[in-house]
Amino acid sequence: MKALRDRILKDGKCFPNGILKVDKFINHQMDPNLMKQICVEFIRRYASTEINKIITIEASGIAPAIMMGFLLDLPVVFAKKKKPSTMGDMLSTTVFSFTKQREYHVVISKEYLGKGDKVLFVDDFLAYGNAAKGIIDLCKQAGAELVGMGFIIEKAFQHGREVIEAEGVRCESLAIIESLDNCEIKMKEV
Fold first, then answer.
1. Number of domains the chain is built from
2. Which residues are annotated binding-site positions for 5-phospho-alpha-D-ribose 1-diphosphate?
3. Which residues bind xanthine (predicted)?
4. Where residue 109 sits, what CATH number does that domain have?
5. pLDDT tens digits for range 64-112
6. Which residues belong to the annotated binding site?
């Protein structure tokens, strides 16, 4: 996706240890027009797939998930990183955050994810696949069908795609970073 690629190269910032900062337009301050273009591209890629819910993990996946839900007129469910006192019957799993270097116990109410659901997971980054593993686990617990996973940016050198594809789940990424060595952003043509 050319608009996304150009924006990453213009405004993305590289930090040591494979960190790409895109908070100027994706996950702190957002560019709603770019986010709409991103979601339209995800919709195009999953056009022939039956979906009845969009799913993500808080917080950075919420913006693209809501835009997708809006454009497709579908509900959006997000796994919460803290169990609310009002949540009773729930699904739970553990996810390790590479960026935050900590584990989260993420939860979804069984009221919002269950048998018969055909869900598409949307998130900002695919790195090691830890969030993806958590969502795969939650969908299995719920008996929901995970029809695919869409990522705005994939860091291919961290091999998260392999984790997803080993589970037999379709994976789509709109921008693929091949390397951040020497804090230089090298992207794959997609």
1. 1
2. 127-131
3. 20, 27, 155
4. 3.40.50.2020
5. 999 999 999 999 999 988 777 777 788 989 888 777 788 888 999 999 9
6. 20, 27, 127-131, 155
